[in-house]
C-alpha cells in the first residue's frame, strides 16, 4: 500500500509498504531480493568469505581482499559494501577492515564443519535461480522440462547431486534424531540422490543395509561420493537405476522395514503420488514405515513462507506437481494402505516429515 509520508505530510511524498513493520507486505524486499541472493552467491564464488576468515580476528582490508580475490577494481568494494548492508560482513569504521558475521563464519566458510556454501553456490545459484525465471511460463502453460530430462545430462546431474550432498548429510543427521531407525535392518531410499541419507543411516545404525533408487546419471555420481565413506559403509549402501514413477521397482516385495522418500513427493506429477506410495507399501514388510520428508506448508495453507516458496520453485520443472501439506500427504498415504500417520517438523519453516505405517 502507498501511505502519506509522516515526515512532511505532503500528498506527493509517499512510502511503499516495505518501509513499515507489522502486517504490511515488504514489496521492495520481495522485488529486489534477487540482488541480495546474487551478492551472496558471488561472494561464495570468488571465495570472499574464506579469504576474510583466513585473515583472522582482525579482519581484512579492501586492498588485501582485492589481492586475495584477484579482483583489483572498484566493483569489489561495491560488492563488499552490499554485503555489509546485508549484515553478511561487518566493517570496523576505525580500521576499515572487514570480518564475517557469525552466521557467515559458521555456514559460508568452507573450512567450517557446518559449511553448506557449495549447495547455495552450485544448486541454488546456478540451477534453481535461473529455473525460476521460467515460472511465469510454467504457471500459464503447464509445460516445462522435467527432472528426467534435466538429469539425463551427465554434467547437470553431477553438479546438482554433488551440491545437494553436502546439505543433505546435515539434514540426514537431523532426521535420524527425529525418527528412530535403530530397529531397521533394510532401508529403501527412493529418489535418494547422492545417497546422503543412506550413508548417514549406515554410519549410525550398525548392520543396516540401504538401497538407493534414482536416475542413472544421479546414481553414477552417488557411487563416486560413496567412495569417500568408510569401507563398512560402502559395503552396506548400493545404488540402483530407477525413475521412481514407473510402475515396477527393481526390488523384492516385503523386503524392507523402512522406505524413505526425501524431497521426492514434490518432484513428481500429482497423479503419480498414489502409485508412488503404493509401490512403497509393496516394498515394506508388514509393520514397516514410509517416511516422507518434503517441503511443506501448514494445513492452513498460509505459510510458512520458505515452505511455500520451495514448493513454488518446483513448478518450473514439475508443473503438474502438488504443493504439499501434511494433510495432502497423509490422505494419499491412507489411500495407499498406510495408517497411524504422524507429522514431525524437520527444517524449521521449510520441511516436514510424515510417517505412515503399513498394516
Give your account of this protein's structure:
With about 350 residues, the protein is of the alpha/beta class. It contains 16 helices and 12 strands. It has helices spanning about 25-30, 35-45, 50-55, 60-70, 75-85, 100-105, 115-130, 135-140, 145-150, 155-180, 195-205, 215-225, 230-235, 275-285, 305-315, 325-335; strands at about 5, 15, 60, 90, 95-100, 185-190, 210-215, 235-240, 255-260, 285-295, 340-345, 350-359. The strands form 3 sheets. Strands 8-7-6-9-10-12-11 form a 7-stranded mixed β-sheet, with helices on both faces. α2 packs across α7 (about 115-130) and α7 (about 115-130) crosses α10. The protein is globular.
Helicity level, as a percent range?
A: 40-55%
Query: What is the mean pLDDT?
Result: 92
Count of β-strands? 12
> Which class do the helix and strand fractions yield?
alpha/beta
**Beginning-to-end CA distance, first to last residue:** 53 Å
Strand order of the largest sheet: 8-7-6-9-10-12-11
Stretches with pLDDT under 50, minimum 5 residues: 1-20
Strand content: 15-25%
Using the alpha-carbon principal axes, give the shape.
globular
Number of helices: 16
Summarize the biggest pleated sheet. 7 strands, mixed
Order of helices and strands: EEHHHEHHEEHHHHHEHEHHEEHEHHEE
Cα gyration radius (Å): 23 Å
Amino acid at each position: 500500500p502507498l501511505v502519506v509520508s509522516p515526515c512532511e505530510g505532503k500528498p506527493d511524498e509517499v512510502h511503499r509498504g516495505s518501509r513499515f513493520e507489522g502486517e504490511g507486505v515488504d514489496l521492495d524486499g520481495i522485488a529486489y531480493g534477487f540482488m541480495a541472493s546474487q551478492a551472496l552467491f558471488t561472494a561464495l564464488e570468488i571465495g570472499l568469505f574464506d579469504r576474510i576468515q583466513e585473515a583472522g580476528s582482525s579482519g581484512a582490508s579492501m586492498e588485501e581482499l582485492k589481492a586475495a580475490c584477484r579482483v583489483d577494481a572498484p566493483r569489489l568494494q561495491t560488492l563488499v559494501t552490499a554485503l555489509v548492508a546485508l549484515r553478511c560482513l561487518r566493517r570496523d569504521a576505525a580500521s576499515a577492515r572487514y570480518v564475517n558475521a557469525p552466521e557467515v563464519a559458521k555456514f559460508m566458510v568452507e573450512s567450517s564443519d557446518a559449511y553448506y556454501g557449495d549447495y547455495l553456490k552450485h544448486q541454488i545459484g546456478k540451477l534453481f535461480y535461473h529455473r525460476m525465471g521460467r515460472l511465469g511460463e510454467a504457471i500459464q502453460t503447464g509445460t516445462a522440462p522435467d527432472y528426467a530430462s534435466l538429469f539425463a545430462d551427465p554434467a547437470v546431474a553431477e553438479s546438482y547431486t554433488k551440491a545437494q550432498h553436502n546439505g543433505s548429510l546435515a539434514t540426514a543427521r537431523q532426521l535420524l534424531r527425529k525418527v528412530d531407525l535403530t530397529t531397521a535392518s533394510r532401508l529403501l531410499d527412493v529418489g535418494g540422490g547422492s545417497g546422503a541419507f543412506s550413508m548417514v543411516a549406515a554410519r549410525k545404525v550398525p548392520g543396516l543395509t540401504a538401497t538407493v533408487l534414482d536416475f542413472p546419471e544421479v546414481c553414477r555420481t552417488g557411487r563416486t561420493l560413496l567412495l569417500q565413506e568408510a569401507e563398512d559403509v560402502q559395503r552396506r549402501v548400493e545404488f540402483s537405476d530407477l525413475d521412481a514413477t514407473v510402475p515396477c521397482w527393481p526390488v523384492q516385495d516385503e523386503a524392507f522395514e523402512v522406505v524413505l522418500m526425501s524431497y521426492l513427493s514434490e518432484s513428481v506429477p500429482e497423479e503419480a503420488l498414489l502409485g508412488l506410495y503404493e509401490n512403497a507399501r509393496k516394498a515394506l514388510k508388514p509393520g514397516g514405515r514410509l517416511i516422507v520428508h518434503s517441503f511443506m506448508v501448514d494445513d492452513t495453507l498460509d505459510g510458512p513462507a520458505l515452505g511455500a516458496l520451495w514448493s513454488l520453485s518446483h513448478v518450473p520443472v514439475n508443473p503438474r506437481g502438488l504443493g504439499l501439506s501434511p494433510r495432502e500427504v497423509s490422505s494419499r498415504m491412507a489411500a495407499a494402505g498406510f495408517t497411524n500417520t504422524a507429522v514431525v517438523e524437520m527444517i524449521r519453516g521449510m520441511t516436514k516429515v510424515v510417517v505412515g505405517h503399513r498394516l
